[in-house]
């Protein structure tokens, strides 16, 4: 009787812990740290070594400054568009009339003039002290595969302007004197006039330039042997060269990253560990434990599969350079697929190979759980997810471990009760 009550109480305890995990996970998923927003990767980075916020009103200690927002900023931009450039720009940039001038981002102004032969003259200007300023032409609004014109003045005050091909997200993949822009024979120029830097260049396009994704960025450190430092701020816009208007490029994988993290946490941080707990500590509830274990693990597998599919889409969208995270995720998914196959190939209890199947199923499952949980921690670190994700996942794993410790202790005590020899009673001799 006492043993039956003990088993029932342990089952109720496990189910309560499981429900508690689900309720706490809602708090974990809803948490959104401000530092996560400020470190969001938007997929169009110049020489990426860190993740920075795309902000239209940031103010930095050097490079291209961001002007204050509001009416004062609009007035200042209008006045800057009236600047007479004939006195400081070299020909032919100093005598081009009827140039369209449009504010595009912070203090960045874009002037352009289109000719009938699809040749466009660009003059990009921005407030400047040190560092570099860049304007890139992208096919889809992303950094990788785009070509950029970058201008700066070195420590000696010498003007430098070069075309770069953005082959990848690493600094070594930002290649100088390369790119897909068809520059004309007119030499590009970079000059400083007052507080402004001006990048001027001409390019010929295959067809009339219409809507074009443009990447804008700046860094506050001098390029080292023409290798660009990490940007201090950047953005991507969709510029309509026909109407002369700019809009924000809609390439923001932030929500996709959150969904990827939520699916991974549900799969490897909640359901799959819970299914393993059921299999280890509820086997005395035959056949309930088996159906619970199979159902929870299958749901966890589906969530893990969806997580990997979403991760592959995210990998392609932002050209993420995270081979370790990607490889571990695929490895963990492969092990979980083998576990699903093992379910359908499970031999009977009295089969000779059943003990080998048990060994395979137990240890492959534990290895998959280990790498799944490790990859969540690694992904939180790589994605700079913020404090709320770290605290939330740490709380979830702590509760799982506490539950395992308690159930393992109860199981050990239960086994000890069974191995204790019963007391013998002797009748008093008559």
UniProtKB/TrEMBL annotation:
Q: CDD domains from the entry?
A: Cyt_b561_FRRS1_like, DOMON_DOH
Keywords, A to Z, come to: Electron transport, Membrane, Signal, Transmembrane, Transmembrane helix, Transport
- Which cellular compartments is it found in? Membrane
Cytochrome b561 domain: which residues? 222-416
Q: Where is the DOMON domain?
A: 106-219
Family annotation (InterPro entries): Cyt_b561/ferric_Rdtase_TM (IPR006593), DOH_DOMON (IPR045266), DOMON_domain (IPR005018)
> What is the protein name stated in its UniProt record?
Cytochrome b561 and DOMON domain-containing protein
Q: Organism source for this protein?
A: Populus deltoides
């Amino acid at each position: 009787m006492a043993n039956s009550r003990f088993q029932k109480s342990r089952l109720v305890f496990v189910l309560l812990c499981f429900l508690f995990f689900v309720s706490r996970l809602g708090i974990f998923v809803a948490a959104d740290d401000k530092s996560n927003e400020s470190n969001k990767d938007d997929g169009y980075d110049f020489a990426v070594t860190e993740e920075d916020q795309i902000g239209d009103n940031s103010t930095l200690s050097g490079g291209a400054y961001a002007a204050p927002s509001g009416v004062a900023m609009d007035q200042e931009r209008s006045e800057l568009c009236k600047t007479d450039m004939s006195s400081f720009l070299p020909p032919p940039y100093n005598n081009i009339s009827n140039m369209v001038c449009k504010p595009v981002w912070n203090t960045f102004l874009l002037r352009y003039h289109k000719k009938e032969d699809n040749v466009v003259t660009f003059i990009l200007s921005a407030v400047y002290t040190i560092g570099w300023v860049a304007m890139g032409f992208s096919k889809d609004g992303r950094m990788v595969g785009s070509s950029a014109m970058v201008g700066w003045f070195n420590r000696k005050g010498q003007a430098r302007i070069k075309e770069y091909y953005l082959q990848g997200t690493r600094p070594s993949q930002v290649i100088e004197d390369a790119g897909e822009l068809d520059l004309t024979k007119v030499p590009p120029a970079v000059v400083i006039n007052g507080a402004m830097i001006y990048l001027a260049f001409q390019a010929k396009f295959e067809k009339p330039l219409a809507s074009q994704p443009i990447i804008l960025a700046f860094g506050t450190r001098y390029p080292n042997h023409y290798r660009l430092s990490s940007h201090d701020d950047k953005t991507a816009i969709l510029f309509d060269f026909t109407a002369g208007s700019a809009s924000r490029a809609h390439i923001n994988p932030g929500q996709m990253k959150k969904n990827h993290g939520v699916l991974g946490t549900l799969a490897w941080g909640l359901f799959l560990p819970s299914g393993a707990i059921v299999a280890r500590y509820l086997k005395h509830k035959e056949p309930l434990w088996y159906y619970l274990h199979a159902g929870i693990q299958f749901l966890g597998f589906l969530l893990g599969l969806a997580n990997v599919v979403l991760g592959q889409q995210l990998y392609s969208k932002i050209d993420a350079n995270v081979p370790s995270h990607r490889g571990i995720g695929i490895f963990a998914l492969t092990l979980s697929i083998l576990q699903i196959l093992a379910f359908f190939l499970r031999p009977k209890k009295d089969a000779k190979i059943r003990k080998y199947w048990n060994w395979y199923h137990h240890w492959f499952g534990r290895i998959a759980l280990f790498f799944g949980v490790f990859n969540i921690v690694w992904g939180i670190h790589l994605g700079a997810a913020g404090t709320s994700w770290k605290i939330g996942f740490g709380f979830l794993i702590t509760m799982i471990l506490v539950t395992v410790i308690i159930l393992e202790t109860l199981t050990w005590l239960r086994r000890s009760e069974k191995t204790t020899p019963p007391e013998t009673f002797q009748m008093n001799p008559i």
